[in-house]
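Give me structure tokens for this 95-residue protein.
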Amino acid sequence: MKGQHYGELTAIKYLPGVEIEQFGSEDFTKKDQDAGFHRALAQKEIDRMKTVFKKNAHDIAIMDEIIVAVWSGLISEEEILALIQDKPKSTTIDT
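Here you go.
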């Protein structure tokens, strides 16, 4: 979804203690297109967030474009709800 370089990536590198991981492709996907490649990238993000949440090392997790990934059918709403339910209470999710 958003594996490209955007201005916020340049600005945020000046903030100490901020980690950025991108999982999207530089290609766009459409809702009804065969999206196996994009689905795998979205699943990689879900798996990574599970690992991050287990470590309980972050106050905020920004999952930009995750709602679009659900809308596009790349990941299920149930997967996101389970991720939210299993996150540490001290971590805030922003989309």
